């Protein structure tokens, strides 16, 4: 039976002694934990060990999670440390020929001459995910957690062990670079049948996606509407999300749950759970220099028998066709790329090895928004969203578009690197008719890049009522029902029937019918002989669901004599 309890309920139950709650946690999160571990470690046995350690440590430390509803990012924060611990221990030398790894969890490269249209989204997803294995491990983790596991905002930052601002920067930069670099790869695989010119560009291509091939494809895409449509249709990040997940061994569940919670079951770990909210702190040996965390890092992506290297967004000079680039990355990424180049001639072959230090250009300033839809609903007078600059240079920004009847306060200006600005959206509904109001504005940065924001609010007004009903002192000598009439006005139609409810010596309710499209009428159904005070309320609802009410009262005195 599926586990229906929320994360917070599962955590609370487990810490109160319900071992079955841990099984619910395992069933909910082990597939994603194993999938991420397998992608990062590229070894099924290590992935199983890492996931087991995550569950065992979580079982031991769950009482330290101060916000039980944040169980998911907390588990991935533990996984982050376990993955880093393993990659640091074994080193992170990545082969560029994935087909030589001999591990079934690594997708084999797709034949370069395969018909692109015949490739399914899952096959292209496998291709993209295999290529993403060549990324720096932190960058790959950003992709796995944000795209595959759906972590965002503060939860993603906590899982990565960085500040919200750093998380914002990492995601923004990574999405841009991956879309540009892997976008060319996907178009090369999937777009040749639709574009004869692209087929000519790739004629004789042997599947090695070298810098030269990537540059040729990227430049072709820039001037080809057909290939640009292919790139947008087969977005690399969407394909990454569609790649089949790595499945954990079925027997692992019983083995892990049998150990969990027992004294000494959790493995020794060098990190403490003393970060904000009871999250694990990144072990000192694993921490990355601040300059690396927020600076531009080289993107190194291996595919097929070669490698795709995108040191910066701007293309470097093309490598010669005879050059093969082999890439080795280390656990603590920096801005130095080690490259081994070999050249050959008809008479002899020589090899040289050199290490070069590449200084990356600062990332231009840009706008990152916390919301692209601002909805004030039916009652809020104002709402706010934040505009941030995740880049490394200042950026000017302005707002374009007719926003009336909305007003934007604090809109526009200059944002320094890492700075954010709160924009308040307000509306005055006084002169607006009932209905939904929507306006779209565009936030432009100084690079000419625009992002649209939808402003929305509703105007709702209840009907206006005038009561004409029984009031004052009435005599029991005049028994029977009492007639009630209510005149109404409204910008929308009225939803009939209206109703009247009363209480006193006798109580009840009755429907009121429409009269002449301007009023409702009906009776308070009492005998009229029971003396006492009666109160009554008439309810009228319009077709938009706005309810108005108006009340009255009267007293019935006993009949004299």
Write structural notes for this entry.
There is one protein chain. This protein is α+β, with helices and mostly antiparallel strands. The chain has three domains: 7-294, no CATH class; 369-459, Immunoglobulins (Immunoglobulin-like); 464-557, Immunoglobulin-like (Sandwich). It is 31% helix and 26% strand. The protein contains 14 helices and 22 strands. The strands form five sheets. An eight-stranded mixed sheet has the order 15-17-20-19-18-21-22-16, with no helix packed on it. It has a five-stranded mixed sheet with strand order 7-14-13-9-11, with no helix packed on it. Strands 6-8-12-10 form a four-stranded antiparallel sheet, with no helix packed on it. β3 and β4 form a beta hairpin. α1 packs across α2 (20-41), α3 packs across α4 and α10 (211-223) packs across α11. The chain is extended and about 110 Å long. The N and C termini lie far apart (74 Å). Residues 92-118 and 284-359 have low confidence and may be disordered.
């Amino acid at each position: 039976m599926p586990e229906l309890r929320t994360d917070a309920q599962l955590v609370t139950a487990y810490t109160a002694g319900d071992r079955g709650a841990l099984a619910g946690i395992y069933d909910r999160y082990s597939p994603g934990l194993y999938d991420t571990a397998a992608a990062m470690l590229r070894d099924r046995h290590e992935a199983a060990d890492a996931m087991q350690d995550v569950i065992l440590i979580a079982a031991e430390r769950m009482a330290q999670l101060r916000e039980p509803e944040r169980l998911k990012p907390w588990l991935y924060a533990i996984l982050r440390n376990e993955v880093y611990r393993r990659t640091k221990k074994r080193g992170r030398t990545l082969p560029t020929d994935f087909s030589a790894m001999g591990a079934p969890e690594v997708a084999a490269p797709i034949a370069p001459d395969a018909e692109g249209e015949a490739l399914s989204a899952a096959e292209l997803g496998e291709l993209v995910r295999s290529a993403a294995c060549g990324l720096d491990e932190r960058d790959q983790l950003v992709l796995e957690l944000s795209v595959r596991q759906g972590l965002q905002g503060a939860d993603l930052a906590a899982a990565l062990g960085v500040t919200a601002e750093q998380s914002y920067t990492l995601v923004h930069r990574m999405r841009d670079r991956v879309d540009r670099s892997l976008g060319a790869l996907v178009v090369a695989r999937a777009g040749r049948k639709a574009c004869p010119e692209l087929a000519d560009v790739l004629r004789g291509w042997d599947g090695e996606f070298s810098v030269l091939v990537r540059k040729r494809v990227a430049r072709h895409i820039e001037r080809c509407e057909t290939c640009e449509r292919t790139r947008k249709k087969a977005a690399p990040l969407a394909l990454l999300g569609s790649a089949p997940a790595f499945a954990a061994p079925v027997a692992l569940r019983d083995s892990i749950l049998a150990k969990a919670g027992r004294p000494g079951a959790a493995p020794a770990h060098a990190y403490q759970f003393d970060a904000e909210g009871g999250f694990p702190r990144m072990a000192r040996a694993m921490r990355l220099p601040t300059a690396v965390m927020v600076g531009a890092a080289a993107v190194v992506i291996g595919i097929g028998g070669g490698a795709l290297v995108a040191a910066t967004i701007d293309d470097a000079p093309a490598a010669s066709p005879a050059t093969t680039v082999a890439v080795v990355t280390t656990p603590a990424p920096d801005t130095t790329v080690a490259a081994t180049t070999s050249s050959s001639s008809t008479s002899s072959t020589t090899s040289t090895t050199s290490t070069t230090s590449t200084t990356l250009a600062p990332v231009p300033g840009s706008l990152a928004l916390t919301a692209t839809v601002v909805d004030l609903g039916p009652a809020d007078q104002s709402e706010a969203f934040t505009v941030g600059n995740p880049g490394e240079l200042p950026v000017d920004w302005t707002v374009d578009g007719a926003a009336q009847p909305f007003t934007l306060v604090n809109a526009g200006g200059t944002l320094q690197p890492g700075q954010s600005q709160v924009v308040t959206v307000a509306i005055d509904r006084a002169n607006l008719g009932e209905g939904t109001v929507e306006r779209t504005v565009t936030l432009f940065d100084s690079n000419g890049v625009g992002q649209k924001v939808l402003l929305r609010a509703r105007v709702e007004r209840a009907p206006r009522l005038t009561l004409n009903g029984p009031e004052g002192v009435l005599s029991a000598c005049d028994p029977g029902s009492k007639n009630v009439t209510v005149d109404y006005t409204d910008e929308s139609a009225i939803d009939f029937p209206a109703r009247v409810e009363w209480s006193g010596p006798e109580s009840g309710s009755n429907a009121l019918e429409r009269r002449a499209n301007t009023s409702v009428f009906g009776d308070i159904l009492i005998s009229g002989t029971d003396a006492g005070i009666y109160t009554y309320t008439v309810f009228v609802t319009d077709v938009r669901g706005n309810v108005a009410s108006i009340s009255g009262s009267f007293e019935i005195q006993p009949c004299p004599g």
